[in-house]
Specification:
The structure is a single chain. This protein is of the alpha/beta class. It has 2 domains: 173 residues, 3-Layer(aba) Sandwich (Rossmann fold); 96 residues, Pantoate-beta-alanine ligase, C-terminal domain (Pantoate--beta-alanine Ligase, Chain: A,domain 2, 2-Layer Sandwich), CATH 3.30.1300.10. The strands form 2 sheets. It has a 6-stranded parallel beta sheet, sandwiched between helices. Helix 6 crosses helix 7. The radius of gyration is 19 Å and the shape is globular. The structure holds adenosine monophosphate (AMP). Adenosine monophosphate binds next to helix 2 and strand 5.
Length: 283
């Protein structure tokens, strides 16, 4: 495995692999790797001959009051984990390499896909992600890019980006890796204290409960969702959103129809930690 930090170096390495006829799958991460990331690396290995992982905490996707400063950083452990998984290249740029220091003349602007869910709650978040992933795609030029369903809105927005900007890259989504008690794995789970960690699977349980009701025929889940939000508040969560969204355009949906695909998604705080989770409903 090679670790490289400059754009010239990663381009040269990828060109070398491609000249041997090898296909490349790319897994972008912000590090603090857990089993969710590793499951994406394995999926990437199934798809392509070689896997490239990036580890970069992208400042552009953090709001001024968010956790950029305290985001977990553990490069040494991450590199060992990548090596064990048989990753060929790890790209670890710094801010200067990714963004330089000169004035920027272009801004990303996103449409309705960004209006709700995390896009609605975190201004600038997806603009920052689109910016960095667009750069990564141009730098690495992989055949495949693998992302987690955990960040389903990210996957949908980036899939549109690939289509609208004609990146020659196949987008692949990996399922959500969970702890035994159902909690979706996340680098941010490291912030939870013991008490919060015990309460944390409550978000997934709420989603599972609503999923079951919908599968049993509840097609207007508004009241049900409100009730589950109240229950979460009673368990110490501070709700951000809990709702059903259209898979197509990420807009909230009040009345569900069979034959359609939806995302049942929630975001809530436990103390300072923001948890997100979702279930795809193919009705
Ligand atoms: P992050 O390092 O949090 O930016 O995540 C890097 C990639 O890992 C993204 O595509 C995430 O969607 C994905 N990911 C994060 N958590 C999980 C999980 N629990 N299961 C599967 N993929 C995940």
């Amino acid at each position: 495995m090679k670790q490289v930090s400059t754009i010239d170096a990663i381009r040269a390495e990828v060109t070398g692999l491609k000249s041997q006829g090898k296909t490349i799958a790319f897994v972008p991460t912000m590090g603090a790797l857990h089993k969710g990331h590793l499951s994406l690396i394995r999926l990437a290995k199934e798809k392509a001959d070689e896997v490239v992982v990036s580890i970069y905490v992208n400042p552009e996707q953090f709001g001024p009051n968010e956790d950029f400063g305290s985001y977990p950083r553990q490069m040494e452990d991450d590199l060992n984990a990548c090596e064990e998984e048989g990753v060929a290249l790890v790209f670890t740029p710094n801010d200067k390499i990714m963004y330089g220091s000169g004035k920027k003349y272009f801004r990303i602007e996103l449409d309705e896909l960004n209006a709700h869910m995390d896009g609605g709650s975190r201004p600038g978040f997806f603009e920052g992600i689109v910016l960095v992933v667009n750069k990564f795609f141009n730098i690495v030029k992989p055949d495949y890019a693998v992302f987690g369903q955990k960040d389903i809105q990210q996957f949908q927005i980036l899939s549109r980006m690939v289509e609208e900007f004609n990146h020659d890259i196949e987008m692949i989504a990996g399922p959500i890796a969970r702890a035994n008690d159902g909690l979706a794995l996340s680098s941010r789970n490291a912030y939870l204290n013991d008490h919060e960690r015990k309460a944390a699977p409550g978000l997934y349980r709420a989603l599972k409960y609503v999923e079951k009701q919908i599968r049993d025929g509840v097609m207007e889940p508004g009241l049900l969702l409100k009730h589950q939000q109240d229950e979460l508040e009673a368990k110490g969560f501070k709700n951000d959103y809990l709702n059903v969204f259209s898979m197509e355009n990420m807009q909230p949906v009040e009345k569900l129809k069979s034959g359609k695909k939806y995302i049942l998604a929630g975001a809530a705080y436990l103390g300072k930690t923001r948890l997100i989770d979702n279930i795809i409903l193919d009705l």
